[in-house]
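re the bet — no i am not wrong, look at it urself. input seq straight from the record:
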Amino acid sequence: MMLITALVGSLLASKTLAPLSLIALAMLGIGLCASSAAAINHIIDRKADANMNRTENRPIPQGEISPFKASIFAFTLGA
């Protein structure tokens, strides 16, 4: 959803079409930053997620992925 909003915003913000390579790189950057933020959110919410039926089967609360490894993943996505 964020990528669609960013794409539409970039198309509406300019009178001319930006180069497709620039739009593609912007979408890639936005997607990676959003993914990094989501991973950080999963790390922060791991204790609450373990107590909720809807989220108890996520990889971090289940112990399939350690918070440290998830942090490395989040940092790599956002770097």
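see?? Residues 20-44 form the longest helix (25 residues). told u. also The chain is about 75% helix and 0% strand. so pay up
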